């Protein structure tokens, strides 16, 4: 009976370790995705500002041509 209990505890310990490793890998993956999304957000904001300024110039120069 003792051997069965030891085997059970050993299997539980191995399963726990496996689950912890999977969770750590998933956490690292999610952290990497978060950093990528934050970088994209900054890039999108910069691009949006560039487009706004370009549009503003087009409107300004377009209106001056009409005069």
Structure description:
With 67 residues, the protein is mainly alpha-helical. The chain has one domain. It contains one helix and no strands. The chain starts with a helix and ends with a helix. The model has no long low-confidence stretch (mean pLDDT 93).
Q: Give the domain tally.
A: 1
Find the count of extended strands (DSSP E, 2+ residues).
Answer: 0
Mean pLDDT comes to 93
List the uncertain runs: none
- What gap, in angstroms, lies between the N and C termini? 98 Å
User: Helices and strands, in N-to-C order?
Assistant: H
Percent range for helical residues? over 70%
Structural class: mainly alpha
Shape: rod-shaped
Strand content: under 5%
Count of runs of 4 or more consecutive helical residues: 1
Query: Which radius of gyration do the C-alpha atoms yield?
Result: 29 Å
Sheet with the most strands, sense and barrel status: none
């Amino acid at each position: 009976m003792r051997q069965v209990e030891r085997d059970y505890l050993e299997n539980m310990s191995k399963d726990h370790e496996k689950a912890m490793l999977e969770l750590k890998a998933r956490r690292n993956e999610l952290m990497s995705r978060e950093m990528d999304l934050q970088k994209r957000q900054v890039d999108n904001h910069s691009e949006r500002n560039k487009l706004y300024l370009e549009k503003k110039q087009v409107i300004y120069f377009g209106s001056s041509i009409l005069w």
